[in-house]
Amino acid sequence: MKRRMVEVKLLGELGRRFGRSYRFMVHNPREAISALCNQLDGFKDYFCKAHENGVGFKLINNDPQGMDYDEVMMSCDRLVIAPVIAGSGGRGMSIGQILVGVALV
Asked: What SS3 class is residue 89?
């Protein structure tokens, strides 16, 4: 698999804390998240512990429903990481999505 330039957007509190936009030359979204963890002080800790405060993260590529674990291993051109309140109705965070976020790190 070839590396490609991926635009990463951080929404909500994540964007306010760590900056809203980044670009990385990576193979897949998992590598983009790893790059954020390695380059931004406190990002990995915040990302891994947010579930303790009832917050998870929805990873969005082209599908606004979000990605599952298999999709984060595929290439993409754009990645949006959106904080989502756990337990919110409808399409809120499921425990599976929270675990996907933690597993990525």
From this structure: coil
The residues near 64 (Cβ < 8 Å, ≥ 6 apart) are none
**Angstrom distances, CA of residue 48 to CA of 1, 9, 25, 76, 101:** 27, 18, 23, 23, 8
Kind of pairing between the strands at 21-26 and 4-10? antiparallel
| 101 in Cβ contact with 56 (< 8 Å) | yes
- Assigned token pair, 12: 């909500």
CA–CA dist 104, 97 (Å, integer): 11
- What is the DSSP-derived secondary structure letter of residue 26? E
Report the length, in residues, of the chain. Answer: 105
Q: Residues 23-38: pLDDT tens digits?
A: 999 988 889 999 999 9
Q: Is the pTM of this model over 0.85?
A: no
CB 76 within 8 A of CB 6: yes
Q: Compute the distance between CA of residue 79 and CA of residue 2 in angstroms, rounded to an integer.
A: 17
